[in-house]
Recover the amino acids of this structure.
């Protein structure tokens, strides 16, 4: 990890603390998982823009609000999929 990456990671964590984000929005310790963009999430899940907006509105998908757009971690998407299966939605 370069110095700029370390600095960006630190600034991101400060941003989450100041914006009162849930601690679960942070990736698990020890992983170098990069946040996914809105388009990457739509491609990963195979959904359209309208489906994406509907899932964010109803709370199925919970993006991390960041300057420059929403971000997601893959483990959160997998958790949301497991929860949907558990509730019988899929």
């Amino acid at each position: 990890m370069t110095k700029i990456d370390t600095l960006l990671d630190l600034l991101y964590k400060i941003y989450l603390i100041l914006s009162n984000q849930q601690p679960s929005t942070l990736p698990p310790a020890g992983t170098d998982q990069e946040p996914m963009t809105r388009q990457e999430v739509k491609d990963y899940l195979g959904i359209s823009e309208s489906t994406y907006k509907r899932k964010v509105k109803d709370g199925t998908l919970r993006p991390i609000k960041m300057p420059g757009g929403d971000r997601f971690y893959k483990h959160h998407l997998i958790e949301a999929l497991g929860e949907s299966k558990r509730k019988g939605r899929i």
